[in-house]
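Renewal narrative, Specific Aim 1. Our central claim is that a sequence can be written position by position from structural information alone. The example that follows is taken directly from our test logs and has not been curated for this report. It begins with the structure tokens describing the chain, in the order in which they were read.
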């Protein structure tokens, strides 16, 4: 053990220029991820912004009991899980499929063009992209014109005003905006596959689809497993900016996610202790989902984060 530690120290000294590059990231994490954890204590207090934190009265689990008995909280849980499940089941495979198909393109210039175009929506802020989506979904918008042109509907529909469409709107807008960006990790993993494997399979008579299934997918399986575990652990989270831009009074019944619920309770209503208690409980559940997803993944395919 002592010899192993000395080897690590020697490696660190030899690579100190590279190792020091993580220092800004560590500082950022300490300031924005660990230091704010001190404020979790207000979830157990009746915090008032008008006086210091430690002078607020301690109330124990009062706020936890309040949100558990709040019907609006459970509605936000239902909406969050509904949107997250759709994105996980129907959205998670799409970047994988996109990366696999992109890898099969032999024309390098065309391949790079497709990659660049697919990345661009990610860099458009939701304040802009959400406005574009609202325009497309509105009366006389692109979606209505396309659906009517294909004969799939007889009249124009205000999609974003009908609550039953909201979950699907968030799914399709998320896929449209993030597919190219999400595929980057898979494309990088595919780039690390030994080309000799493809050459050997081709000599053995394997078709393109067989090479994709038996070589490409199997080689990136650890990457898929890790990202799937992280996706499961984040199911109680939601894209706040996306939902905030697409929501309105008519679709709020299906639009209010857990993040939006916390925002409304904490900043709009000024119930800081209540919203902190909700976030604290959500973090505990998310940690449990992480361990559960990791254990399941390791049991099914032998891959996990830890």
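The sequence written for that structure reads:
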């Amino acid at each position: 053990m002592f010899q192993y530690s000395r080897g690590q120290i020697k490696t660190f000294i030899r690579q100190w220029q590279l190792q020091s590059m993580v220092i800004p990231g560590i500082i950022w994490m300490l300031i924005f991820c660990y230091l704010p954890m001190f404020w979790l204590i207000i979830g157990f207090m009746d915090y008032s912004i008008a006086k210091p934190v430690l002078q607020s009265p301690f109330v124990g689990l009062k706020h936890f009991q309040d949100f558990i008995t709040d019907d609006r909280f459970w509605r936000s849980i239902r909406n969050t899980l509904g949107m997250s499940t759709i994105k996980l089941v129907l959205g998670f495979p799409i970047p994988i499929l996109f990366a696999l198909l992109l890898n099969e393109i032999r024309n390098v210039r065309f391949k790079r063009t497709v990659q660049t175009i697919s990345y661009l929506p990610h860099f458009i802020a939701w304040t802009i992209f959400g406005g574009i989506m609202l325009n497309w979904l509105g009366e006389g918008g692109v979606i209505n014109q396309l659906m009517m042109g294909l004969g799939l509907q007889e009249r124009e529909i205000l999609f974003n005003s009908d609550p039953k469409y909201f979950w699907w709107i968030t799914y399709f807008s998320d896929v449209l905006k993030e597919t190219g960006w999400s595929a980057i990790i898979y494309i990088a993993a595919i780039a690390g596959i030994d080309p000799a494997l493809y050459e050997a399979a081709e000599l053995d008579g394997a078709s393109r689809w067989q090479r994709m299934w038996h070589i490409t997918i199997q080689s990136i399986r650890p990457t898929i497993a890790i990202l799937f575990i992280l996706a499961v652990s984040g199911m109680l989270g939601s894209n706040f900016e996306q939902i905030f831009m697409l929501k309105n009074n008519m679709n709020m019944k299906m639009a209010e996610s857990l993040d939006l619920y916390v925002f409304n309770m904490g900043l709009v209503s000024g119930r800081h202790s209540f919203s902190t208690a909700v976030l604290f409980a959500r973090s505990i559940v998310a940690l449990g989902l992480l361990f559960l997803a990791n254990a399941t993944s390791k049991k099914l395919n032998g891959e996990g984060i830890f």
